[in-house]
Amino acid sequence: MELKTRNLTLGYDKTIILEDINVTLPKEKVTILIGSNGCGKSTFLKSMARLLKPIDGQVLINNENIFNISTKKVARELAILPQSPYAPEDLTVFNLVKQGRYPYQTWLNQWSGEDEKAVDYALDKTGILNLKDKKLSDLSGGQKQRAWIAMTLAQQTDIILLDEPTNHLDIKYRIEVLDLLKTLNKVENRTIIMVLHDINLAFRYADYIIALKDGKVYSQGVPKDIVNEDLIRDVFDIQSKIVTCPLFKTPTCIPYQNYD
Ligand SMILES: Nc1ncnc2c1ncn2[C@@H]1O[C@H](COP(=O)(O)OP(=O)(O)O)[C@@H](O)[C@H]1O
Ligand SMILES: [Mg+2]
């Protein structure tokens, strides 16, 4: 499954947010989108999942315009976890995760052993099998986030899109969620495309970075090739020193305004 854009222009009503974007999201890699608040990261991700119609250009999935493919077929190829997903608080974890199976259901085939297996797999992978009968309202932030990720896993798609999946999580759970996504990528060859706020975690976990700025792709590539002080200054409007992380050998940004 390959996802790419062709002269993609996105926006709302007549306001253009991203213009003439041409990117190929590397297959079976972890790609992370970075950029300042409001630059269009969520807008980009929504369009990849067919949730937003382009003003111009196309999103292609295996060279086919995503808008020419049925909703259910798209949902069997890619799953998206939006920035602020909503579900009723009295829903149980099991019933949330079960919703990931909707693309496989027809009126003839309502719920199968296959669906049951996929849900169990997703609960197991995210370490929340023991929470399956709990209501969402009784979960911690980290547990709830894992339940949402489980829902996207139950969908069993090659491509998983996630918009700030570590938002509101403590550092321990942030690492846990990112390690889980990395493992899914490495062990099961899932293509992961996500937005992350924490640039240092982005540089650590990404195989490929796409930096957005002023409606364009500012730069894209492997973190160690593209991350430098100019990028941080231009994209985030802050001075910094880039050092190599002693543990992971990835670029690490130390931002500052002034120092003596
Ligand atoms: N549904 C919407 N209707 C109108 N404008 C929107 C909508 N969603 C986002 N925007 C605007 O589009 C721009 C990009 O938003 P977004 O993609 O959410 O940025 P990011 O995720 O990078 O913070 C912002 O100026 C935002 O206000
Ligand atoms: Mg966003």
TrEMBL record:
UniProt entry tagged with the keyword Nucleotide-binding: yes
InterPro entries per the UniProt record, alphabetical: AAA+_ATPase, ABC_transporter-like_ATP-bd, ABC_transporter-like_CS, P-loop_NTPase, Siderophore_ABC-ATPase
Membrane topology field: Peripheral membrane protein
Signal peptide: none
Gene Ontology terms: cellular component: plasma membrane
Gene3D superfamilies registered for this protein in UniProt: P-loop containing nucleotide triphosphate hydrolases (3.40.50.300)
Stated name of the protein: ATP-binding cassette domain-containing protein
Example of a GO MF term: ATP binding
ABC transporter domain mapped to chain residues: 3-239
Keyword Glycosyltransferase among UniProt keywords: no
GO terms (BP aspect): iron ion transport
Keywords: ATP-binding, Cell membrane, Ion transport, Iron, Iron transport, Membrane, Nucleotide-binding, Transport
Subcellular location: Cell membrane
Pfam family, one: ABC_tran
Domain of life of the organism encoding this protein: Bacteria
